[in-house]
TrEMBL record:
It comes from the Eukaryota. This is Uncharacterized protein. Residues 1-64 are annotated as: Disordered. It comes from Agaricus bisporus var. burnettii (strain JB137-S8 / ATCC MYA-4627 / FGSC 10392). Residues 46-60 have a biased composition (Basic residues). Residues 19-34 have a biased composition (Pro residues).
Length: 343
């Protein structure tokens, strides 16, 4: 299978500009269509900027990252729809904000609260104040981590771990993690990894696979520059680290249910229900559909892919039934599902 990622061009003469630039004000966040890449103009650098290709910038993120202290019982699951309704109501009534907080997910050691648009610093402060009120903690209060950037890397030529298709992703991940921690480059990279890497076999019968690794980075993407074109030893093979396009693997969007982007990068006009694919969140499913249809399931992806009607009747988060989950590391398969929209 071909994956047409250009090799990372950054190593040529790529030096970080001397003056770090301020993060663009999130109040003037660009519209989604122009969200990435953010343009940077270093006054002393007439040459074209090359950075940005593997890095997506914090100012375009529609999210608030909360960091509960280590001993805190607060998790992403603590953010129930009741908590969200409460916060959204306060945002609207107290600060006349139209931002809507939609869902919570785990991100690194923090909790990522996805929002309908990029929240302003004052909106973030307001949410944080109320989160601390709702979840009081005796010692250290819940913190907030200013979002910087995410850089997207891939590591190629990783020896494929033989395992049943069910167990493969897990086994491959275990082998990858233990190998990373054995080398100095790998161990320092491992500390920056944002979420579980995604693995994809280079081709269906290949003996090697690729790992897609998203890392925390500075606004200028300097972490990515440190690692791109370096090698890590995995299973006795020297595997090269390359830059990747943002979201080049297959990610499931928890907001619109489609594949290929993370929910905080979602550009859909409204949330889609994972249960019935209606224009509402799963939390509001009971309120939005009539009593007789409550148990009707319709997968947004299988419907969009025009699969036969009897093959659509599952929720889009049903990892056991929906073929999109089974094929989530198979880009060619995913691409074939939407021939009309092929990119
Ligand atoms: Zn989406
Ligand atoms: Zn629904
Ligand atoms: Zn499906």
């Amino acid at each position: 299978m071909q994956v047409d990622e250009p090799a990372a061009p950054l190593s040529a003469s790529g030096k970080a500009p001397i003056n770090p630039l301020p993060i663009p004000s999130s109040k003037r966040a660009p519209p989604p269509t122009s969200a990435a890449p953010v343009s940077f103009r270093a006054p002393s650098a007439p040459r074209k900027r090359r950075q940005g290709k593997h890095t997506s910038h914090g100012a375009s993120r529609r999210a608030i990252i909360l960091t509960p202290p280590a001993d805190s019982p607060v998790t992403a699951a603590s953010f129930t729809s009741e908590v969200f309704n409460n916060l959204n109501r306060l945002l609207k009534s107290d600060v006349k904000s139209d931002v809507i907080l939609t869902h919570a997910s785990v991100e690194g050691n923090g909790i990522c609260i996805a929002a309908s648009r990029v929240p302003s610093p004052s909106e973030i402060a307001f949410v944080l104040k109320h989160v601390r009120r709702i979840f009081p903690s005796p010692n250290v209060p819940i913190g907030h981590s200013p979002i910087t950037s995410t850089s997207y890397l891939k590591i190629v030529d990783i020896p494929h771990v033989p395992a049943s298709s069910k167990e493969w992703a897990l086994k491959q991940h275990e082998a990858f993690t233990s190998a990373l921690n054995k080398s100095p480059v790998g161990a320092s990279l491992a500390k920056l990894i944002k979420h579980k890497p995604r693995f994809m076999r280079a081709s269906p019968h290949s003996d090697s696979c690729w790992a897609w690794v998203d890392i925390h980075d500075t606004v200028l993407g300097s972490n990515a520059r440190t690692y791109i074109s370096k090698f890590v030893s995995i299973g006795g093979t020297n595997c090269q680290i390359k830059g990747a396009r943002p979201h080049s693997g297959s990610v499931h969007c928890a907001r619109c249910q489609r594949w290929g982007h993370h929910s905080d990068q979602c550009r859909a006009k409204c949330a889609r229900c994972s249960l019935c694919s209606g224009p509402h969140t799963e939390a509001n499913h009971l309120k939005c559909v009539d009593v007789l249809s409550v148990d009707v399931r319709q997968c947004a992806n299988c419907t969009a892919a025009k699969r036969p009607a009897d093959k659509r009747s599952h929720s889009s988060t049903d990892t056991k039934v929906c073929p999109f989950w089974k094929n989530r590391f198979d880009r060619a398969w995913l691409k074939r599902q939407f021939p009309a929209r092929s990119t």
